[in-house]
C-alpha cells in the first residue's frame, strides 16, 4: 500500500494532549477578547472582556478544535514528528478555513451590510470595503491560529526528547 508511511515516534502523555487542546483555544479566545471586546453597553471593561471571552470561546476556537483539530492531530501524529511549524500550520488551517467560509456564507443573500461607516455589501455584492474587511478578519484569524498552534506546541510537544529518526 502506497501513501504516507507511519513512523514510530514517542507520543506525549494524554494529560498534556488534553491540556493542549483545552489551553490553546482558551488562551487565543482570551487574547481576542482583550483586543476586541464586545458588549459596548456594559459599563465595566472586565465584565465586557469576560463575557466576550465566553462568547468567543464557545463559538470560535473550542468547537473548531473539537471538530477539525482533533482529527488533524490523530491523523498526523503517527505520520510525522510535531514541530513548532507543523503545529502552527495546523492551528492556522483549523481556524482560517471554516471561519473564512462562514464569513463568505454569511453575506450571501444579504441586500445591504454595513461595517462602521462603510458599506460592505450592496445589492447582494461585496464592495471593496467588504473585501478589505474580510481580508482584515482573515489576517486576525491567521494570527490567532499561529498563536494557538505555538501554545499547543509549547504545552504538548516542547520538552519531549524525541528519538532519532530511523534510517
Strand order of the largest sheet: 1-2-3
Number of domains: 1
Q: What is the mean predicted local confidence, pLDDT? A: 82
Low-confidence stretches: none
The percentage of residues in β strands lies in: 5-15%
Mind explaining what this structure looks like?
- With 167 residues, the protein is mainly alpha-helical.
- It has one domain (14-156).
- It has helices at 14-35, 45-59, 61-76, 84-106, 128-156, and strands at residues 112-115, 118-122, 125-126.
- A three-stranded antiparallel β-sheet has the order 1-2-3.
- Strand 1 and strand 2 (118-122) form a beta hairpin.
- The longest helix is centred in the last third of the chain and has 29 residues, at 128-156.
- The model has no long low-confidence stretch (mean pLDDT 82).
Indicate the topology.
Elements: H1 14-35, H2 45-59, H3 61-76, H4 84-106, E1 112-115, E2 118-122, E3 125-126, H5 128-156
Antiparallel strand pairs: 1-2, 2-3
Helix pairs in contact: 1-2, 1-3, 1-5, 2-3, 3-4, 4-5
Question: How would you describe this structure in keywords?
Answer:
167 residues; mainly alpha; 7% strand; globular
Task: Give a nutshell description of this structure.
It contains 5 helices and 3 strands; from the N terminus they run ααααβββα. The protein has 167 residues and is mainly α.
